[in-house]
Amino acid sequence: MQNHQQHVQICFDCAAACEHCATACLREDHVMMMRDCIRLCRDCADFCKMCGSLTARDSEFMRQFMVLCADVCDACANECSKHDHEHCRACAEACRRCADDCRHLSASA
Amino acid sequence: MQNHQQHVQICFDCAAACEHCATACLREDHVMMMRDCIRLCRDCADFCKMCGSLTARDSEFMRQFMVLCADVCDACANECSKHDHEHCRACAEACRRCADDCRHLSASA
Amino acid sequence: MQNHQQHVQICFDCAAACEHCATACLREDHVMMMRDCIRLCRDCADFCKMCGSLTARDSEFMRQFMVLCADVCDACANECSKHDHEHCRACAEACRRCADDCRHLSASA
Amino acid sequence: MQNHQQHVQICFDCAAACEHCATACLREDHVMMMRDCIRLCRDCADFCKMCGSLTARDSEFMRQFMVLCADVCDACANECSKHDHEHCRACAEACRRCADDCRHLSASA
């Protein structure tokens, strides 16, 4: 239960970082270079919001969802880590943390 | 900006409390008495997730949304405060905090 | 592309049926008997909205998501088909159609 | 009720058009020119999904939400109509239809 509450917060923190990063990328001069980042942040924000919701509501599907959510977070973290912007760095970190916690919780009984 | 980050967290905390409360209400023996609570928690969870997202992405519509979100949070807080369950008490508190912060931020320039 | 447009509509139709069914279940006299239906409709509505969105935006994660979405739709259809309410019958039908289309599309190259 | 079912479909059609338009804009060569379109499609997709959901679940907040949703649809339609891409034209049309229906329904008793 304690673990679940923490996971919910980690998911929503990641969603917030992704929403912020997508907007900030759209405002960069070199928006062309940020296409993949915007695209992945859009997906990752939605996955993390849903992962947080399913966990908070103790859904029977939350563990299967976490497995997929971890992959989306990985993809977003990998793309964000290619860029030097502070919002990308923060987003990559939030995504890695969320991916780790998704894998950890989905593996627990 | 600092205020916005804090608001995002308050919104997502409220969404988590509402998702949890709706599930817990469905598991109560007297689920009949919890209908309104489940209904309002369902709406409030969605409003607060969206409010957190719009704030994190710095949407031009966030202030108008906060005004409406505050009303939804009030309605949910009022219903939850009629019940003695710990999940209802926690949800009412999260809703009131979110309503206050929505009103505070939407009124700021 | 044609198939994708159709899938988006099937997903959103299912989401609408689930949202409607959850509300209608909450209004039934024997809400106690409808707990599982409400719980599953809540999850299924969110999964189908996300499945429709990922498909409409041509997300690289849509096929993996469809596999999981099909399972959620099955679970909701199975529960809804236990009840005689018209909203449950309509929801079960929408869920089965969505599960089929998720499996069909996720298997296509 | 008939009107509500139709509104749900109009909302979800608009959400699908916005999700598709945002992705297509990100793939255009002149992505720089499409920033505002991507930003507004992102918001409008979320508003329309929520408007469809609130209507399908017969939420007490749906009318107030429609008023705001109509403004978001207008803003997205105005931006999309500045561009010649087929996805922008289709999105503008879906947004106008949704804005009209939101205003029509929110004004009805």
Specify Rg of chain A, calculated over alpha carbons: 14 Å
| Oligomer category | homotetramer
Helix/strand/pairing category of chain A: mainly alpha
What string, H for helix and E for strand, traces the elements of chain A in order?
HHHH
Supply the CATH architecture of chain A. Up-down Bundle
Organism (chains A, B, C, D): Larkinella terrae
Protein name (chains A, B, C, D): Four-helix bundle copper-binding protein
Pfam families (chains A, B, C, D): Csp
Give a structural overview.
4 copies of one chain form a homotetramer. By secondary structure, chain A is mainly α. Chain A has one domain: Substrate Binding Domain Of Dnak, Chain:A, Domain 2. Helix content of chain A is 82%, strand content 0%. Chain A has helices spanning 2-27, 35-56, 62-80, 86-107. The longest helix of chain A has 26 residues, at 2-27. Chain A is elongated and about 45 Å long. Chain A starts with a helix and ends with a helix. Chains A and B meet through helix 1 and helix 2 of A and helix 1 and helix 2 of B. Chains A, B, C, D: InterPro entries: Csp_YhjQ (IPR005560), YHJQ-like (IPR044543). Chains A, B, C, D: Pfam families: Csp. Chains A, B, C, D: It comes from Larkinella terrae.
